[in-house]
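Standup, Tuesday
Yesterday: got the pipeline producing structure tokens again.
Today: sanity-check two examples.
Blockers: none.

Example 1:
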Amino acid sequence: MSIFPTQNGKVAIVTGGTKGIGYQTVKHLARLGMHVIIAGNNENDGQEAVRKLKEETLTGKVEFLYCDLASMKSIRQFVQQFRAKNCPLHVLVNNAGVMLVPERKTEDGFEEHFGLNYLGHFLLTNLLLDTLKQSGTHSHNARIITVSSATHYVGKLHLNDLQSRCSYSSHGAYAQSKLALVLFTYRLQHLLTANGSHVTANVVDPGVVNTELYKHVFWVVKVVKWMTAWLFFKTPEEGASTTIYAAVSPELEGAGGCYLYNEERTKSADVAYDEELQRRLWTESCKMVGISDEASRLP
């Protein structure tokens, strides 16, 4: 893990910060002096994570706020609660996710991978954009970091069937949600630049990390994973390193629209650079979550 400058006085929100990569991300940001708010959907896990983090970081600047990313209503309530604190927001880490879950729907009727991994973060980011814009400055941009995965390279975006209703495959739905996050990040950066905002948006590939996300994988795969984890899999701490790099590294000051792997800029899937696809997904997403598409007035 690289050495980064202290972040005293800065505020971050990390979704899914009670376990795995998210937990390690919160821990490192708190150690750097940030006030970190964990957004999660389990109150008990949240309070337990806060207790452990305060012990491990020796700082009281970690708190938990309930946010169920599978519920548009819950996301809106979370943003209201956050706004009531009247504090700035310098870093937003869109980290939470589900992987390879059986076919099921969120309370708003969305396929779960697409609804939670992608649409939940799409809405959350848009609702927090004003605060991020107000918090960023010319020399210290506010930063949005979205965690995708190498799975996006095999993902296909079915604009006419984003909910995977025609034929459901957990692998296909997961890969599509991760590709959507890359397309979203590139479109978001384009809009932020067009607006002259002091906010950057980047997307991170944490690598193959040994976390609880694998609980829905077939048991044979679980056994193999258990036997090979120490060889091939990164620890959650190693998996979090690129997210932390994206959140605080001076090297990335003012740089947006990057796909980052192992703390380096690299190339995402070719299809992710399709600007027409980025634009169409953005417009469709605005309709789905019920926000106005202000982007339609921009190039």
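Example 2:
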Amino acid sequence: MSDFVILLLILFLIICLILTVVGFVFYTGLFSEVVIRTGSPPVKNITIAYKFRKGSYKASGAAFTESCSIGPKLSSVGVFYDDPNQTQADQCRYVVGSILCENEEKPDEELQRLYEKFGYKVISFPEVTCAVTSSFPNRCTLSPVCGAYRVYPELQQYIKERSLNAYPFLEICKGDLIHYMCPLENQKDFCVPELLEKKTSEETVEHKDAEVTESAAGEDATRRVSVLVGPSEPEQKSSPVIQEVVEESRDMVEASVPLMESSQPSLGEEEGQSEDGDQGGKGSSESVGSGSSFEELDMEVEEEKEEKKNEVEEEDHNGQQKPVMGETIGNREE
């Protein structure tokens, strides 16, 4: 066999491989047109057996495989509650399960017990009249993966452009189609109890954190006030370190008392000396004041004598007496 023939065989095999890959891609629906519309959803009220999970949506394939292995003839369903573009991958919440019945039908009791045996729970979703919907071919095991990469970005863009309140994202594998729907009403009816419990616990934790923060702020303020003003008696009793410091300060004060008492006599003597000096100064001032007062009295007596002489002379001259002046003079002599 010549080299030319070998080269032709290699080229033929490469072309066949390329055609096979392209054909498989078209078969999976990767290049299918994605049509998004708003209207009545493809399913009515449904009852599902589910498991609540938290983590990356990429790991949901194992959950779909588990639910399909229990009920291979049932349609599988997934409900995704968080946007992976805004939420961390390990914090995304979703449920995966199988549809037990639709509309007014009742679930098979044996099948329901089988799912419950494997840890699944049962819940019913109501019928909605308006939702954002789309579909994708379900032809092989890779169809859900291709549909996720093709449909979800288109759904998010459609909802964002029209400012719709569509939540959550439901993915239902039914027959040869994968239905995608986002309810525009009664969104809370599509939330499982585990999701509500998680929200309540998170709110409780946030509330407790807020209370702890407020109490810590109050304690900090109290400590600042105690530093400025001084601790209260209960705080002094409750803290042994503060008691030791207070006792040491008291011992130091008691030890300093004798020294202060010994220094008091000298101070008393100085004070006595100062007081004696003050008294001596006062006595000298009083003596000076008394001397001046005696001189004034002598002058007054001399003036009275002169006045008396003048009055006597006037009486002799006029023959009249002034009893009033005499009484006053007598009172002064007394």
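Quick observation on example 2: The CA atoms of residues 304 and 310 lie 10 Å apart. The longest strand covers residues 93-102.
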